[in-house]
Amino acid sequence: MFGLPKSTDINKQLPKKMIFEKFRPNTNDRKLFDDQISRLAIVSEVSPQTVSIAANEDVSAVYILLVTLKAADCDKKNIALLSKLIDQRMLFALQFENTIRLAVYRADRVLISESRPFDDWKLKLSGLDLGAVWENIIAEIGDIDLSKGKGLDETILNNERRSKLTKQITTLENKAMNEKQPRRKWELVNEINKLKAELEEISNG
Hints:
Layout: E1 9-13, H1 16-23, H2 27-36, E2 37-46, E3 62-69, H3 76-85, E4 89-96, E5 99-106, E6 109-112, E7 116-117, H4 130-141, H5 152-178, H6 182-204
C-alpha cells in the first residue's frame, strides 16, 4: 500500500465508538467527526521491525491511518483532534471513493496534500533514521523545500506567513488601484511596501 514494502501492511480497525469512549471529545467535536468520517483503520506501520531503518530518540515508528470519508472534504479540526488523541507519529490517508489526500499534524498546523487516485501514491522512505524519514514525508505532503537548511517547523510557519502576506499585498494593491483620495492611496502604498519588505526578509532569510 502506498508503494511501501509488504512487510509494513497491517489492518487494525479503530472503531469510532472506542475513540469516543476513550478520549471523550466534546459534543461539537464529536458531531463534526461523526458527520464527516465513516471508518478508521491503521493500515501501515513503518518501524525497525518492518523496514531496515533505525528509530531515533523522537520517532520509533510511523503509522498510516486510513480515514474513510463520507464526503470529499474533511475539516482540519478532525485531523488535529485525531493527532492529539493518538500519541503516535501518524500519517492520515483521507479516502473518498477512489481518491486519497494525505494529511499530517505538525507545528500546530494541519498540512494536506492534493488529491490523487489511490494507486498513484508512492511514499518514499528517505533518510538515515525514522526521524528523518518522518520529516521528509511531511515535507512531501506540504510541498516544503528543506534544501535551504531551515528546520521543518520554522519552514512551515514561514510558508504560512508568506502566503498570508502575499494575499494581503494583493488585496491592498487592488484597493490602492481603485482609491481616489491621494492621501489614502499614499497610506496604502506605504502599507504595501512594509509588507513587501517583510515578505522579502522571510523569503531571503
